[in-house]
Amino acid sequence: MSLFRALFVSIRVWLILLGFVVAFVVAYALPLLLPVLEIAFWVFLLLVVIDAVLLFRQSQVGSQPVFFARRALPERLSNGDDNPITLYLESRYPFNASVEIIDEIPFQFQRRDVLFQSEVKPNEVRTLRYDLRPTRRGEYSFGAINVYVMTPMRLLKRRFQFEQGRLVPVYPSYLQMRQYELLAASNRLTELGIKKIRRIGHSMEFEQVRPYTQGDDLRTINWKATARRSDPNQSNLVVNAYTDERSQAVYCLIDKGRVMRSPFEGLTLLDYAINASLVLSNIALIKQDRAGLITFSDKIGQVVPAERRPGHMLKILEVLYRQKTRYLETDFEALYATIRTQVRQRGLLLLFTNFETISGMRRQLPYLRRLAKDHLLLVVFFDNTELRSLLDTPAHTTEDVYLKTIAEKFSYEKRQIVKELQQYGIQSILTAPKDLTANTVNKYLELKARGMI
């Protein structure tokens, strides 16, 4: 039974049989063709038998299987990123094996096109690579690797199955986090759209004195240290070097309410906020600040105190992995009460939420003003890119004019929200979802460079 389950007939066989049927019908009108067709048919059957023998005569060569395949997966997939998947094929058939590979990927991807065709020479290891971009966190189940092997005649197929039922978790975008981390360590964040912020003044945390170089602020010259230098061959000017304030508390406040359920390019606003929080927390730790996390909706979710201990980043990653959207109205009063009791030291609060209308923002404004009184509050909300594309499209009909007018009204309200928050001294970012991480890191570095935290 296992032999018949592994045996498949190629399309070439069915086409040849169809050709024989047509030829035999024609042979009734031309009887001289009948003996030739009979010989050809028996030759064809002989070739099919030979093809079957070549495919199924052995299952192993020595102690090794006659054909082997495996899938190389990361221990976890990165949400919203292209994750590389590698297939390794190894053949010990004595001929060049033509193979078709169908990889059973998780149903969440809704793809049925993961089909590859290749040729594997004897004792050769062939590598195939493709990418998967998950858009939801959670566990993904990979099925079997189905490999259909054919001889050079391509009449029959022998199916091999490998690696059935492997679970792989999908975590927040740790690939993006590592990318920002490497570029931050090498001071190359501008490659990802991070702007260089000109320092206005300096913090009061003294680091060292060093020789003056062109472009240094003249106000930082240390005249006493300069007077003590007596070597005439060296520049006499010495300046004080200051460093950024360190060990500041940076909290990411993530709204999990229904306003964060909207999808853009496959990811929900909550997932965009989670990915940005992961990157920002890591950048804050690199800048010697303390990173914390609070999730909330109709009730308070996870609270991770701001720390800078070894393994703290892994703790934040695990907490973000488990977050899910809730469908109730967000309770900002509970958020304020939690911060009032658990965040005693002044710090930077990055609130990831979404306001569609100015009236919706005004309902929460009293709590935002209270938070801004005790902390530096940065409200991050999202521009509707679908409306933006509608506004950029020319109107050709009366219906288009009405739609553009409504879209302009919503876009105007978003801009008004920014202005009204500024009136109360609340920092804000209105950003497209895909630009969220870069804009948030930009704002954090700007606030830090200006000594506001």
UniProtKB/TrEMBL annotation:
The chain crosses the membrane at residues 12-33, 39-56. SUPFAM superfamilies: vWA-like (SSF53300). InterPro entries: DUF58, vWFA_dom_sf. The keyword Transmembrane applies. Residues 208-386 form the DUF58 domain. It comes from the Bacteria. Keywords: Membrane, Transmembrane, Transmembrane helix. It holds the Pfam family DUF58. This is DUF58 domain-containing protein. The lineage of its organism: Bacteria, Pseudomonadati, Bacteroidota, Cytophagia, Cytophagales.
